[in-house]
Specification:
The longest helix is centred in the N-terminal third of the chain and has 12 residues. A hairpin with a 3-residue loop joins strand 18 and strand 19. The protein is built from 2 helices and 30 strands. Helix content is 4%, strand content 41%.
């Protein structure tokens, strides 16, 4: 159920607001809450002409809360006699700390990851843009629940990595911990922890391991209250003893481009005194189908050299696939700094772009975090969602998905490399031309 405005064109603002909330839910293990509808606060969402009724809305009726088998809490309440009233729902801990977990027109919600201990849920009716009414409240003690071991999961060999695939839709699991040991050894060591995928979305990540030697891998879910669950049955796998390879390289000249790549508009290969043969963009771009290995990668690295032309008044996009806060990823210059965006809601901003100077940029996503490196130095990092949301749109170098001048990159680009892996800083130095 959506507010009436959300099904009209201004509803995009509502969508962006909801996506922004989603972007806060990426630290390991995440604690969040979901309701089935959300009240937009932006006037652009169509509520600016709605006058709130006079007086205060009447309080809701009886409120109930119960803990579900997987650990979440279901909260229900009888509706306020005041028609059309939405509700603000707050979770309050024993020490007084409060979290607003929903603004909703519904009379129920599911708090999917409440902290363990005594909690109070407070439901307050309110008029949009007007007064709030008397609240109703209920208390209960949330018990920490131990997640069961995952029954279906995979460990596959990658280049000096083990690729772990875990099922989605595992209620009560808000993160995963991975453990590894050399085959035949007794002691396990923790090698990674990462947020679980959203309901219905599987998690796919890569764990670093020496190539050519058999290892055992196991995983455990982390649930409400940070309680670690039972370990899965170990899987033995031998990582490949080889260097990660890019799935896309744009360098040299047209003959070096992938077979399905097209030069469109005003873009050409030129000789540069500093970087040799490079691509020069002035309202054109390189376009190609998304490589198959980028449709469900266990990580992502985009690396390139660029020499931007002046961009005043524009938001040039250097490499892109998909749409902001919907799907895919892109690397952009925004407000003079680099933005590394990974859908659905991670904006990793940092590092100043320099007009007329060659700079080397590396953008990394490892399933839990996004990072940006400028000339070999880390300049930005942000928690990120474990989902990779590929879409049917092309992969572009030199523009965004929307064909508008404001998004065209102008300047020179050299040695674009995209990997379906999160390269490490050690790998930067050995396989990338980092300054």
């Amino acid at each position: 159920m959506l507010p009436p405005s959300a099904v009209k064109p201004p509803g995009i603002e509502w969508y962006i607001e909801a996506a922004a909330a989603d972007g806060t839910s990426a630290r390991f293990p995440d604690r969040g809450a979901w309701a089935t509808s959300v009240v937009p606060s932006l006037p652009e969402a169509g509520w600016r002409d709605v006058k709130p009724p006079a007086g205060k809305p009447l309080p809701p009726g009886r409120i109930r809360a119960r803990q579900l088998d997987y650990g979440g809490v279901e909260v229900t309440w009888e509706p306020s006699p005041s028609p059309g009233v939405p509700y603000r729902v707050v979770r309050r801990a024993r020490d007084g700390a409060e979290v607003v977990i929903a603004l909703t027109f519904d009379t129920w919600l599911e708090d999917c990851a409440p902290p363990a201990g005594e909690q109070e849920y407070v439901v307050t009716p309110l008029w949009l843009g007007g007064a709030t009414g008397p609240p109703a409240a209920v208390r209960l003690t949330v018990e920490a629940r131990k997640p069961a071991a995952p029954a279906q999961w995979k460990a596959l060999p990658g280049p000096r990595r083990v690729v772990v695939e875990l099922p989605g839709g595992t209620l009560g699991v808000w993160g995963w911990r991975a453990y590894l040991r050399l085959a035949g050894e007794a002691d396990w060591r923790a090698v990674g922890e990462f947020p679980a995928g959203y309901i219905g979305a599987p998690t796919r990540t890569a764990l670093l391991a020496a190539g050519g030697r058999a290892v055992e891998v196991t995983v455990a879910g982390v649930g409400v209250g940070g309680v670690e669950g039972d370990w899965a049955a170990p899987v033995t796998v031998t990582p490949l003893d080889e260097t990660p390879q890019p799935v896309l390289v744009v360098a040299g000249d047209k003959r070096a481009l992938p077979e399905n790549a097209q030069l469109r508009g005003n873009v050409r290969f030129v000789d540069d005194p500093d970087r040799g043969r490079v691509l020069e963009f002035d309202g054109g771009w390189v376009e190609l189908a998304l490589p198959e290995d980028l449709r469900s990668p266990a990580g992502l690295t985009v690396a390139l050299w660029l020499k931007p032309a002046p961009w005043a008044g524009r938001m040039p996009v250097i490499v892109s696939h998909g749409t902001w806060r919907q799907d895919g990823f892109f690397l952009q210059i925004l407000g003079g700094n680099f933005r590394w965006h990974k859908a659905p809601a991670t904006d990793c901003d940092g590092g100043a772009a320099a007009v007329g100077q060659w700079q080397h940029v590396i953008a990394v996503w490892d399933g839990a975090e996004s990072r940006t490196y400028l000339n070999g130095a880390l300049v930005a990092r942000a928690p990120s969602d474990p989902r990779f949301l590929a879409v049917g749109a092309p992969l572009y170098v030199g523009r965004y998905i929307f064909d508008q001048d404001v998004y065209y990159f102008r300047g020179r680009v050299a040695d674009v490399r995209i990997y379906p892996w999160a390269l490490t800083e050690d790998e930067f130095r050995t396989i990338l031309p980092v300054p």
